[in-house]
Amino acid sequence: MSALGSTVNQTWYMTQRQLVAILRQPVFVVITLVQPVIWLFLFGSLFKKVVELPGFGGGSYLDYLVPGVVVMSAVSSNMWAGMGTLEEIERGTLNRFLITPVSRAALMNANVVQQGLSTALQSVIIVLLGKAGGAHYPGGITGLLVLIVASVLLGTVFGAFSNALGMLVRQRESIIGINTFLLLPLTFLSSAFMASALMPGWMRHVAAFNPVNWALIAGRSAMAADPDWGDVLSRGGGLLALAAVAVALSTRTFRSYQKSV
Predict the structure, then answer these.
(1) Using one digit for the tens of pLDDT, what is the confidence trace for 164-222?
(2) Which among 241, 211, 248 has a CA at the least distance from the CA of 105?
(3) How far apart are CA 159 and CA 186, in angstroms?
(4) At what angle do helices 172-188 and 81-91 cross, to 10 degrees?
(5) How much is the pTM?
(6) What is the rounded distance in angstroms from the CA atom of residue 74 to the CA atom of residue 99?
């Protein structure tokens, strides 16, 4: 078997290990859906009349909100991936794996793959809840698949960066502080809850460089009745490149950690 095939197999084995741990605590999955449900139905009811503002574009606010909730859920859940890495370090599990022949890339990337699968499942549930609440998806299955892939890529970016952060700081308080500091700016400097046309000019310029907004543009463009595939490919390509950089950085910090133990 080639080195690449061996790494893929080992990554999947390590991912299964983490998935089993989640399945043993199904209440955790339910808890992670509480915030998205609040965003979807509380915000959806509270701000449903904003679509009447000139420049918003009309339509149903719930239709607009579903992609925002999917993307923000991917961000908020994956930002804490580094906490799991810290737990593995503190329990000594990670160090025990270091004396095995398992690939170092597999050790680090299994967490990212597990988070990606969890993000995809969470995204599907949010889409179904939105549909039950009356949301419409003119782009059909293709548009929804693009939205889910965009959310997984965005989750990979933040999950891998969170893992790298966990390896570098090795303190829960630092991860909590950094995540808390970043979450609100990432949310409100994007079109998650408000149309870009209604943002101040400086916010629109900042949002253009915000990967959260890239995922939103890609998802909403694909979900439209007349999709703009140029936006989908450009923003999706940007997310894919950023995810590759984040995973490479995560693997590099892991190798640095390995040398320190």
Answers:
(1) 888 888 888 888 888 888 988 998 899 999 899 889 999 999 999 999 999 999 999 99
(2) 248
(3) 15
(4) 170
(5) 0.89
(6) 33
